[in-house]
Amino acid sequence: MNFLKFLITAGYVSLLVPMAFAMESYGGSSMEASMQSSLSTADKKAIVSAMSAAPMSVSAKATIVAMDANGKMRTLHKGQNNFTCMPDNPATPGPDPMCMDPAALAWAEAWIGHKKPVEGKVGFMYMLMGGTDASNVDPYATKPTANNHWLQTGPHVMIVGASQSFYDMYPKSAQPDTSVPYIMWSGTPYQHLMIPVK
After folding, report:
1. Of 66, 61, 96, 102, nearest to 80 (Cα)?
2. Is the dihedral angle over the CA atoms 167, 151, 185, 56 positive or is it negative?
3. Could you write out the DSSP letters of every residue in 7-56?
4. Beta bridge partners of 126
5. 172 contacts 186 by C-beta, under 8 angstroms
6. Most Cβ neighbours (<10 Å): which of 37, 67, 126, 128?
7. pLDDT at 130
8. H-helix segments, the chain
9. Higher pLDDT residue, 12 or 146?
């Protein structure tokens, strides 16, 4: 009986040790600190949502931020790489978590703040859960109208902040084929390249 308990314990440990090393390689120990009981259930859910935006090798080591009730960003988890991930916006109809490099974060902050982003400061953004329904022509549309070309986007990545000549190489139709790369919000300061990944 004691030998059987020993075998079960040994087997259990042999399964857990590789898992622990795998979690460590993806920043598991740092994520564990973020998931302490001091975080609310909502914050824990926000972290999981934010991490779903990018590959685990990126999001597990990213900084996780969320917007508070006053529209200010607060940090839920301090990361170890240059990416910042945001959870799904519950006010939108579909899932739209995103994960971005510093240049894309600056672009997103300019868009949120209704400011002109710096042209030529090229950024990269993941939205692997897809995007909520959105207008392809109006960066600030909140619902479909007869002429704002509402789209549904699947999992994609984005190139933001590039020059006009870069965007001129891609389709700019108001009602694009979303299964191929296309420009969203063409002709505005917030135009960007949408690249579907599925």
Report:
1. 61
2. negative
3. HHHHHHHHHHHHHHHHHHHTTHHHHHHHTSTTS-HHHHHHHHHHHTTS-H
4. 99, 157
5. yes
6. 126
7. 84
8. 2-25, 28-34, 41-51, 56-59, 102-112, 164-167
9. 146
C-alpha 19, offset from chain centre = 25
With 0-12 / 13-18 / 19 or more C-beta atoms within 10 angstroms meaning exposed / middle / buried, residue 175 is: exposed
SS3 190: coil
Q: 128 near 52, Cβ under 8 Å?
A: yes
Geometric angle at alpha carbon 124, from 65 and 46, rounded to 5°: 25
Place of tokens 């300019």: 110
> Could you report how far apart the first and last alpha carbons of the chain are, in Å?
53
Q: For 186, how many CA atoms within 13 A lie in the half-sphere containing its CB? A: 17
Structure tokens at 81: 């790489």
Under 8 Å between Cβ of 71 and 114: no
- Six-digit token string for 101: 């490099």
Determine how many CB atoms are found less than 10 A away from the CB of residue 106: 18
Q: Is the model more confident about 18 or about 133?
A: 133
Q: What's residue 191's pLDDT? A: 94
pLDDT value, residue 103? 97
